[in-house]
Amino acid sequence: MASFSSEALRAWRAGDEEDARERAALIAASSGAECGANGARGGGDDGGARASARGRRALAAAACVAALVGLGACARAHGAEMSGRERGVRAAALGGEARSGGTRRRGAPRRAAPRRAAAAAAAVGQSEAESGLVVFNEAPEYTCAKRNKALREAAYAARMGSPWTPGCHSKLGEEGCTKISDAGARLAALSDHVYVICMKCDKIVLPLQWAGKVTTVHGADIDPCYGRAAADHWHKASMSHVHALLDAVKYQYKTVTIVEEDAITVSPDRVDANAGFDIDGLEHAIKNDSSWNTVRVGYRPFFFEQQSANVPVGSTPHYACPLACKCHETTAKNACIVRENGCDMRSSDFYMIRMSQSRAIRKTVGAGSTIDMEALRNVHHQMYVLPQLSYQANLDRTREQQVNMARRFRDLCFVPKTPSDEVVQDAATAEREYEERRRKLEKRRDAREVELERARRLEARARAEAFRPPAPAPAATSEREATARVEEARDDARASGEALRRAKEEARASEAWDPNRGYKKFPNVTALFAEYDAKRARWVETKLERALTIWGEVTGGEFKTLEAFNWYYGEDLDARDGANAKSVTYMLPAVMKASAPRAVAEICEVACRIGAPRSGAIDLGDKLRAQAVAKLEEAAEFDLLEDDELETLEALRSWVVEEK
Q: Where is this region: Disordered (predicted)?
């Protein structure tokens, strides 16, 4: 079963997602027999044991299905963890894995195992609605890591017969796992969500205060996806922080706490028994002080270590707090704020952060930095908990050395409040609040301006659409007059087309020609395009006007312009959502009612031989085309059509045949 999971995981990582799905599905299909075979090998002499083996065999088969569900539901895997986390946290707090039925009795019904495996699959495939999913543009690295997480948890469910839950899974109970102190648990619970960065995610006892708001970020899921597979530990861990921040962006959290698995949290009285730690006051400050961007529960004053390293062996170092690291008193007794950025304060084992700083941190880490060097160093207004409550287990400094450096930071960098400081702080707060209000007002004003501009554009468009240009000339009163207009418009269109052709050739032959940009760099060509379109449109209009003139002569009625059929002068057949093309379909049946076959031929020529410059021939509809063909065929029998009109008839016939 483990080999199946690892093979499926490699298939998903091996390239393009669709191909990977197919490879993983093939691996799963070929592994079905293997799943059953592995279960069958567990049989024994005892009848109950054989029944148990059969149950395990059914469990393994159903687990394959669970793994495949995990493959298809990787984008929803976070929702599965979110929906089941409260149950998992409470079980973890008791030091064990969540199991609904306890130890299975010998000879238990064989159907129980498949039911549990199906439940595991359902847990992996929780609906997005249950997870409170917010749609955002997922980076491919983020999606890749979520997919790896789903595969890993599905493999666990297949192996154990129950879904994976975050928290302590040690057989030794809580004694074999890392615990979070009560103070650390309370401070982290103030944020919207808690992320635990870990490689051994089943070795941490998750506090009950975090129930319903904790997510583990497994390094094995992250490393292959964020381009740090060959990087050192610090860069890999930094990308896990980036993934946690991306997840927080997706779920629209305002503040999050990030805890690394090697963080050792302690009770304040173990650090300083005389400190009189006021956890309630600290919680109140974190909740109500809007000036902080991070709250550092664990930290490492690296600038003191550098000062110590620069002193010759045997000499006593002289420690001094850099100006950028001065930590000013806050309303909380056990906290201070470093207002400036640039303080060389390392460690990222336990901190709370506002998501307004997320983008800058992700960008810095993405550029090659680590989370606790440049990334967090660039953040201003960082609150530090005094005394330090979190230390690193895996560090090149002993626990005692870390405690001493943290105490030195409190002694040398803490700046008590003075009346002038309070005035300055109040002024700074007032200025910041003013700037925030100003930005909000600017955004509102910009939004109003955008909306007004949009309304103006819509109004201008409506006016343009409502405007109908008048006919360039009164209706012709004879076919001869109409034909003269047609010939003049045709000659103008040809001359314009020839000028356009020459200009295009000259543009293509020039040194400035760029095939990728076309004629955009040649304004004379653009102007000639517009002129040719106008000349061509006028030529089409004169042909249709001639058809109406012939129709008027036959009927003895009033001579009309194209305005009688809702025509937009100066525009082609495609313009205004094909309004002029529709006018042609109104004009043709009106003309066919009279004995004017040559007028019918003129309109049909425009419809099927000239057409619109972009969309081509006008769709007259099957019935109207058939009626036009019949009308022209009847006229052809009596030799009433000219040669060009006969060509139009042939074009209309072939068009009808093609359409059928």
A: 85-113, 463-507
